[in-house]
Amino acid sequence: CQKSRLKCLYMRLLLILPLPANASSCLTNMSLLTYAGPDGEKTWPKKYPFCGGVFQSPIDFHRDILQYDSNLSPLEFIGYNVPSTNQFTLTNNGHSVKMYLSPTMHIRNLPFEYTASQLHLHWGNRNKSEGSEHTVSGKHFAAELHIVHYNSEKYPDVTAAMDKADGLAVLAILLEIGPFNPSYEKIFRHFQNVKYKDQMVQVPGFNIQELLPDRPDEYYRYEGSLTTPPCYPSVLWTVFRHPVKISQEQLLALETAMYCTESDDPEPLEMVDNFRNVQEFRERLVFISFREGKLYKCFYAKKLHSDLCKSEILMWWSCCLNHYKNMGVSFSCGSLCSLFFHFCIVAWATV
GO MF terms on file (predicted)? Predict the structure, then answer.
């Protein structure tokens, strides 16, 4: 709480406010959670005050709110490679599919050490390609995976941590369409066994790190909230920059395999569109572990003998020459290219 005093005070204030008479049952019975319709997310704040408050998630990552932070280190994943002799429990909880993780799994290089609790997914439906919660420059991805951890240095379990300002750390992986993904299939192939609410199945252990992108050192970092009620602003988010690909068939299985209702319900309800809309950001900053810029990408394309960015390279190189002329540096184009090409390109990329 020392790092975010206002956030901590805000949470304490709302936690002592009286809730509606039926709210306590809703907090424990997430089957009542809906995203659309008369009881959709616009009505969440009536029962859960935090849902209408500040520090809410998900958000859109756009250039105006991004700030590079050289102190952001790659996360360290401890115990993520779980042997197949151990088993995870996969369950349909009525609004998502959730897999409980091993308590021997930890992440480090955050303000505290965090212990893994569970992972779950958010997705859309078969008729549209939008299913992620976080967006990048307004772009949705097909789905999103969250790996939830709690601050095990300060709290005994995830329940005790979830309403604390420094309680949770969530890793978010954006999913898009591409080739078949055998790592994700280790979870997806069990969906038929959890078609209905409260059904469970055992999943053999595997290396959970396989679910992460190839460059987990590049990510967005910000302080936000749970994306489902009670929407506690207790989450330190790490959203990986690079999406992970799953096949169209795998996405379709995710979008069509499960129901929000129990097996004996006479009117089964498909589990679709279980993602929250983007929230107002309200003068926060998102810190990024990578330097971004179109020219930076073009520079690497140029190194790989690609003509994709040829016109952009020439345009910015002209600007670079003018920059040195204005400084009184009297180099010819050829000599300046040979001496300062790498420095100049990278300098312009980070403006």
Answer: carbonate dehydratase activity; zinc ion binding
Centroid of chain to Cα 228:
14
Angle between helices 310-326 and 333-349 (to 10 degrees): 100
Q: Are strands 135-136 and 106-108 parallel, antiparallel or unpaired?
A: unpaired
Which of 34, 109, 18 is CA-nearest to residue 271? 34
Mean pLDDT for the chain? Answer: 83
| Beta carbons of 344 and 320 less than 8 angstroms apart | yes
Model confidence at 321, pLDDT cuts 50, 70, 90, reads low
Does the annotation count 149 as an active-site position?
no
pTM of whole model > 0.85?
no
* Whole-number Å distance between alpha carbons of 70 and 64: 18
How confident is the model over 56-63, as a mean pLDDT?
A: 97
Largest CA distance in the chain: 82
Of 62, 95, 122, 146, catalytic = 95
Q: What is the pLDDT of residues 225-235, one digit of tens each?
A: 999 999 999 99
Angle, CA 191 vertex, CA 37 and CA 130 arms, to 5°: 45
Per the CB < 8 A criterion, the answer to whether 209 and 280 are in contact is no
Q: Give the tens place of pLDDT for each residue, 250-296.
A: 999 999 999 999 999 999 999 999 999 999 987 789 999 999 754 33
Backbone angles phi, psi at 66, to 5 degrees: -90, 135
- CA 303 distance to own-chain centroid: 31
- C-alpha distance from residue 288 to each of 107, 151, 223 (Å): 18, 22, 13
Instruction: Please report, as a single letter, which amino acid is at residue 192.
Output: Q
Q: 4: number of CA atoms within 13 Å, CB side?
A: 20
Whole-number Å distance between alpha carbons of 181 and 105: 23
CB atoms near residue 129 (< 10 Å): 15
